[in-house]
User: Fold this.
Amino acid sequence: MSIGPILVTGGSGQVAQALGRLGPPREMDMVVLGRPQLDFDDAGTILKAFATRPWRYVVNAAAYTAVDAAEADEAAAARANADGPELLATLCAEARIPFIHISTDYVFDGSKGTPYREADPTNPTGAYGRTKRDGEERVLKAGGHSIILRTAWVYSDTGKNFVRTMLSAGARLPKLRVVADQKGSPTAAADLAAAILDIIALIDRDGWRPGFGGIFHATGSGETSWHGLAVATFEEARRRGGPSPEVEAIATADWPTPARRPADSRLDNGKLAGTFGIALPPWRESLARTVDSLLTPHE
Ligand SMILES: NC(=O)c1ccc[n+]([C@@H]2O[C@H](COP(=O)([O-])OP(=O)(O)OC[C@H]3O[C@@H](n4cnc5c(N)ncnc54)[C@H](OP(=O)(O)O)[C@@H]3O)[C@@H](O)[C@H]2O)c1
Assistant:
């Protein structure tokens, strides 16, 4: 195993921040880099960041995550979600550094009707999903020791996410309308970060095994709809003296967006459990912790 710190990209993002907060496994160091030091729009910054020192692992938590905006600028989404990850994966492969890359449930069209498994055919319904799917394919083609974790509906007490949007809208408005016919699995950034660090600790302890490479689904346990997530968020908020608006269930058709989203993007996490012995906690429990952190004053 090479020496040096773990490199985490996407420094200002939810997952990178959560990784930084948890810190590296024992006897390892971690460096979290964001823009402008590491910018997928400027390949030179990737080469420079990579060359500054030997890295032990690289975790790519940077991505173009604006699902609707990607429809109008697929080229920018492709630079961040496919070109950049391909270059990082290639550099890691050449240097024999394990590479952990994050992808999305939006590579699927949502028509399967049961939780998706890793080998199910992808069929993204929008530009974001297309560029992330291309990123997966190009990372795998780079041929190194790459692990791709497909996650979903990520939220945290920092950054831009549905839970924070609901709480701020709920503080201003007496009634919110939320889509109830899209199913998925909310995932706390802190839980995904903990899973990533557990994977790294396992590789560090036991060495790389061929079964570690490839795609794994990694979402919070359980499922709900966006409406269910909003209702649960306000249940937790109410207990802590936070906002408690009425939440009306509406259909996707009543909330038009530039990007079409999958109606049912639940992921089967069995391969992650079978290979690494890791299961992310139930989404409802992690949501309670996140709302607590957002609404409880801390010193
Ligand atoms: N958020 C979700 O609901 C969700 C769902 C499924 C999968 N995922 C995946 O999970 C991973 C982490 O997502 P997240 O929620 O932590 O994302 P996030 O909070 O939106 O953060 C994205 C990070 O990527 C950076 N970034 C954007 N474009 C970049 C570029 N061209 N070059 C370098 N950095 C760039 C952003 O930097 P700036 O702050 O400078 O823009 C930010 O630091 C991503 O791979 C994402 O696709 C997320």
About this structure: The chain has a mean pLDDT of 96.
